[in-house]
């Protein structure tokens, strides 16, 4: 029996508000397609900031800081698709999501890029300003991790100020719905491709790691 598609949403908001409401909407769309949809609220996990060690660009092994990040990374690796969702704070990405990008990316994901060819979606929530800039930052992070980015035509940006306002942005939620639908379509297409070709790797792999400048096989031997 084929397992249901799995989408993991990473919520970078410091509070339960409009970003949470948008992800509930996304979950309802995914449920209609039989998708297992899980949300990780970064505000509820133990996540340290980058420490003073400063050896990230030299070490061939994962981050030495002990917190809940490895468990979240494991959930990402196990998922078929990942949604990065964050509100705009101070004209940029909310600090929880920024910390997550730094810790997960530099500390865990860059060694062998385990998110390669997973389907990515991006949502930003803003009163009005910098929604596009935050959406673009999260998008570049997905591309850095060699994910397959799925859009909705217009970016999935939702305008909201006060709690509950996200539900009033019909166009924004429509773009979120379209993005989720297309993510599921892409997941199913990739599954069918793998079934027909017997290939699990859709890209050449083994090039020099772009951050540490060590061949991947040498890095993996030291892990």
Automatic annotation (TrEMBL):
The keyword Flavoprotein is assigned to this record: yes
Superkingdom per UniProt: Bacteria
Keyword presence, Membrane: no
Keywords noted in UniProt: Flavoprotein, FMN
Domain NADPH-dependent FMN reductase-like: 5-157
Pfam families listed in its UniProt record: FMN_red
PANTHER family per the UniProt record, alphabetical: IRON-SULFUR FLAVOPROTEIN MJ1083, NAD(P)H-DEPENDENT FMN-CONTAINING OXIDOREDUCTASE YWQN-RELATED
Protein name: Flavodoxin family protein
Organism for this UniProt entry: Streptomyces desertarenae
């Amino acid at each position: 029996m084929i397992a249901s598609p799995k989408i993991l949403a990473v919520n970078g908001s410091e509070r339960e508000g409009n970003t949470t409401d948008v992800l509930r909407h996304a979950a309802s769309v995914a449920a209609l397609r039989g998708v297992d949809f899980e949300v990780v609220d970064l505000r509820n996990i133990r996540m340290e900031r980058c420490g003073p060690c400063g050896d990230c660009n030299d070490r061939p092994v994962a981050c030495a800081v002990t917190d809940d990040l490895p468990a979240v990374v494991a959930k990402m690796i196990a998922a078929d698709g990942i949604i990065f969702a964050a509100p705009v704070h101070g004209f940029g990405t909310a600090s929880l999501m920024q910390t997550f990008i730094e810790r997960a990316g530099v500390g865990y994901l860059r060694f062998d890029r385990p998110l390669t060819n997973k389907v990515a979606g991006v949502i930003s929530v803003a009163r009005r300003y910098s929604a596009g800039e935050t959406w673009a930052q999260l998008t570049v992070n997905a591309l850095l991790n060699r994910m397959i980015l799925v859009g909705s035509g217009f970016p999935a940006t939702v305008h909201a100020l006060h709690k509950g306002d996200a539900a009033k942005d019909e166009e924004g939620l429509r773009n979120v719905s379209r993005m989720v639908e297309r993510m599921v379509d892409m997941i199913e297409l990739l599954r069918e491709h793998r079934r027909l070709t017997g290939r699990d790797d859709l890209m050449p792999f083994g090039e020099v790691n772009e951050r540490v400048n060590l061949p991947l096989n040498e890095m993996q031997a030291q892990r």
